[in-house]
Design a protein that fits this description.
The chain has about 240 residues and is of the alpha+beta class. The chain is built from three helices and nine strands, in the order E-E-H-E-E-E-H-E-H-E-E-E. It holds the Pfam family SIMPL.
Length: about 240
């Protein structure tokens, strides 16, 4: 367990609270985390075609993208969770060592597709189907939780509670009493000392998450963490 000496600093005051008060105080860090099962997959894929005939490359890319979107819908993905980008066209050249010049290879035509799959059990099949349809780039695969926002708010409250509890614990060990909260933040404060924090974080397992799917590309657990920093005044 790490201990932080009681701090006392002289700083000027303005409309906003100074980083540290001109009074005895303690600087505390609260920590918390929640583990939950991933139940969503954010997938980013692309089709890239290179051809000296621009219209041919564009047609191939458009056809593959149409197939990919159709497959996504067949897997039950909501249209609101399907985003196909506009087409991107670039000239592609390759350096010729013999001539010392850039040779024209063709027009590089690409389109990207972003999907959010809400059933991780369908992920392997969807990915294989997209590749079979002509998708030739996988840009992103992120397993997430549909409850991330609500869990993030919950874990932040847990971190605040941990900071308050740690402050009481720390003050008791030094036989002093807390006077009140001076300032608080979700990010480290601009002070010279390290905050006191407990050796272990407050941890919670999300009981409302879906069941684990062992064969879904190791979807497994994800961890959501939060910190809370606070300065408490103490009585003389």
């Amino acid at each position: 367990m790490r201990y932080l000496p009681l701090l006392a600093a002289t700083l000027s005051f303005n409309v906003f609270a100074a980083s540290t008060p001109d009074a005895p105080h303690i600087y505390i860090q609260g920590q918390a985390q929640i583990s939950t099962i991933a139940d969503n997959v954010k997938l980013g894929v692309a089709i890239v075609e290179v051809d000296k005939d621009l219209m041919s490359a564009k047609q191939k890319a458009d056809q593959t993208m149409a197939k990919a979107i159709k497959l996504a819908k067949q897997q039950g993905i909501d249209e609101k969770s399907i985003y196909g980008s506009q087409i991107s066209i670039n000239r592609e050249n390759q350096y010729n060592r013999e001539t010392g010049k850039q040779d024209f290879i063709g027009y590089r035509v690409s389109r990207t597709l972003s999907l959010t799959l809400t059933d991780v059990t369908k992920y392997p099949l969807l990915l294989q189907s997209l590749v079979n349809a002509g998708i030739n780039e996988i840009n992103q695969t992120e397993f997430t939780s549909s409850r991330y926002d609500s869990l993030q708010k919950k874990v932040q409250k847990m971190a605040i509670a941990d900071a308050k509890s740690a402050a009481k614990e720390f003050a008791a060990e030094y036989d002093v009493e807390l006077k009140g909260l001076y300032s608080a933040s979700n990010a480290p404060m601009n002070v010279s000392a390290q905050p006191y924090m407990r050796a272990e974080k407050t941890m919670l397992s999300d009981s409302n998450s879906g069941s684990f799917v062992p064969d879904a590309y190791h979807a497994g657990e994800i961890t959501i963490s939060a910190d809370s920093y606070a300065i408490f005044l103490i009585k003389n």
